[in-house]
Amino acid sequence: MRIGMLIGRFQPLHKGHVEAIEFSLKNSDKLFIVIGSSEKSNQKRNPFSFEERKKMIELAINEKELQDNISIIPINDANNHTEWISSIKNTIGEYNLIFTNDELTEKLFKKDETRVINVPLLDRNILSATEVRKRLELDKEWKSLVIPEIANYLTEINAVERMKSIT
């Protein structure tokens, strides 16, 4: 059985993340979506809580797939890489695939002898959570970077005002 893991902060979830989830799902039988830095929120780099990020993922995923094939897991930051990997292993248990484009994540899991599959990037020059956060803060054309369900949710939780207020 192909048990995959996709790790991200999803601050916020954008179209590229949705594509990465869909790619990971197609290439695994069971997928753990690991939300990193889950303990952080209300910061410039981490404005959204774990629960808000989990909700964004749930809004983007077909309900049946979520129930049958996907688990969304919080992982806090750790003091070092070894502790971080151990935390993931202790939380998830068995997995045999990592979906990532992050060089450090790839290096750490390859060292741990886990198969790493690079996720195709969708319009990476525009689609990044950093760009979405920047545009939210400036209230400048951010909705095209996220799917409509996420745009509605970010509007509902006053993301523009939140980004403007975080110092």
Question: What do you see in this structure?
Answer:
The protein is α/β, with parallel strands linked by helices and 167 residues long. 46% of the residues lie in helices and 15% in strands. The chain has helices at 15-26, 50-60, 63-69, 81-92, 103-111, 129-138, 148-156, 159-165; strands at residues 3-8, 30-35, 70-74, 97-100, 115-118. The protein is globular and about 45 Å long.
Q: Indicate the percent of residues in helices.
A: 40-55%
Strand order of the largest sheet: 3-2-1-4-5
| Overall pLDDT level | 92
- Topology as H/E string? EHEHHEHEHEHHH
Residue ranges: pLDDT <50 for 5 or more in a row? none
Which descriptors apply to this entry?
5-stranded parallel sheet; alpha/beta; 167 residues
Structure summarized in a few sentences:
With 167 residues, the chain is an alpha/beta fold.
SSE layout and pairing:
Layout: E1 3-8, H1 15-26, E2 30-35, H2 50-60, H3 63-69, E3 70-74, H4 81-92, E4 97-100, H5 103-111, E5 115-118, H6 129-138, H7 148-156, H8 159-165
Parallel strand pairs: 1-2, 1-4, 2-3, 4-5
Helix pairs in contact: 6-8
